[in-house]
Amino acid sequence: MSLLSLLYVSRSTLPADSAADAVADIITASRSNNSRLGVTGALLFTGEHFAQVFEGPSAVVDKLMEKIAADVRHDTIIIFAQAPIRARRFGAWNMAYSGPSQFVAGYVTRLLNEESSVRKALSAQWLDELLWEFARGSGAT
Question: Which helix (H) or strand (E) covers residue 12, if one does?
């Protein structure tokens, strides 16, 4: 089975007053669906943007990205990294999430505003690493 890792950032369309409940619903559904589909990863919500990395069978990852692209809670979706992987990095989490992070929000903004393709690739790599560290070290569930 061929595994694929994908990192995207999207602009949230969630109203601020109901965002926390909506994100909780996303996490609950994602954990259930991802467990069934063999997908692992981490999600970050900054209040303005979602940043997510997920990994799993290539065909499943592609279908999930199509589903996210059709989800009205997301706008301006940009895939920053998509590559085959040999082993999972987020294997312990169907969907790691431990709440909003304004710290990581700065990295998301930097990535979105970067114009150089080389620097954009480096910023995407930093964001991916931050999501992994965030999930690994924060007690994310």
Answer: strand 3-12
Q: Give the Cα separation of 95 and 126 in Å (integer).
A: 19
What fold characterizes domain 3-137?
A: Alpha-Beta Plaits (3.30.70)
The pTM of the whole model exceeds 0.85: yes
Contact 91, 38 (CB under 8 A): no
Residues 110, 113: Cα–Cα separation, whole Å: 5
User: How deeply is 104 buried, as exposed, middle or buried, from its count of CB atoms within 10 A (0-12, 13-18, 19+)?
Assistant: buried
The C-alpha atoms of residue 28 and residue 87 are separated, in whole angstroms, by: 25
> Cβ atoms within 10 A of the Cβ of 15, count?
8
Dump the DSSP string for 63-122: HHHHHHHH-TTEEEEEEEEEEEESS-SSTT-SSB--S--HHHHHHHHHHHH--SHHHHHH
pLDDT digits (tens, 9 = 90+) for 36-66: 999 999 998 988 999 999 999 999 999 999 9
Question: How far apart, in whole angstroms, are the C-alpha atoms of residue 104 and residue 107?
Answer: 5
Q: Please give the span between the terminal C-alpha atoms of the chain, in angstroms, as a whole number.
A: 26
